[in-house]
């Protein structure tokens, strides 16, 4: 069994995938907006905010016509609230006027919306449209680098490198599994390497052991 197959097998055993999304939503535009809000913010915080936000603003029209100051206050705790409020309103208006109120599926059209980069677009494409996508957030970037699956730091380069080595059927699943692993075990500051089931195929763990032997 090759390294990639071994990693995917361990991830499947650790985190059986049920297709769920970490961000709560009932409609495509709600997931789009929640993902915009998730920039530099935790999913838990976004879910707390959107639970009330989508009651106050239950439609794209409500966002398009919202008082910007009120919208800023409603999303204040997600950080960068002024830019995010502007992006939400601009996106709502563009969805209504250019896309008949429907969230598009193409990367080009999605990234034409305010505050939407490849990461946000891939979340929507994967969870709403079932289009195989690699979403490179801070956890996917960190864990993939430590495993030795990428040497890049640029998220777009990491995305395409992972697309080249992971089977397409695992792309969305890999996103969710690695994000979970990054939150629970492969932490940014103090990774739990000794108890990590992936240490048998982790480049960083192997290098750490080699350094210990040299000492």
Task: Give a structural overview.
It contains 12 helices and no strands. The protein is an all-alpha fold and 215 residues long. It has 2 domains: 3-17 and 136-214, Orthogonal Bundle (Endonuclease Iii, domain 2), CATH 1.10.1670.10; 28-127, Endonuclease III, domain 1 (Orthogonal Bundle). The chain is elongated, with a radius of gyration of 19 Å. 34% of the residues are buried.
Oligomer: single chain
Structural class, please?
A: mainly alpha
Count of DSSP H/I helices: 12
CATH fold label of the largest domain = Endonuclease III, domain 1
- The helix content is 55-70%
C-alpha geometry: elongated
Q: Tell me how many strands there are.
A: 0
Report low-confidence residues grouped into runs of 5 or more.
Answer: none
The radius of gyration over CA amounts to 19 Å
**Mean model confidence by pLDDT:** 95
Elements, N to C (H/E): HHHHHHHHHHHH
| End-to-end distance | 32 Å
CATH architecture of the largest domain: Orthogonal Bundle
Output the CATH class name of the largest domain.
Mainly Alpha
Beta-strand content: under 5%
> What characterizes the major β-sheet?
none
User: How many structural domains are formed by the residues?
Assistant: 2
| CATH homologous superfamily assignment of the largest domain | Hypothetical protein, domain 2
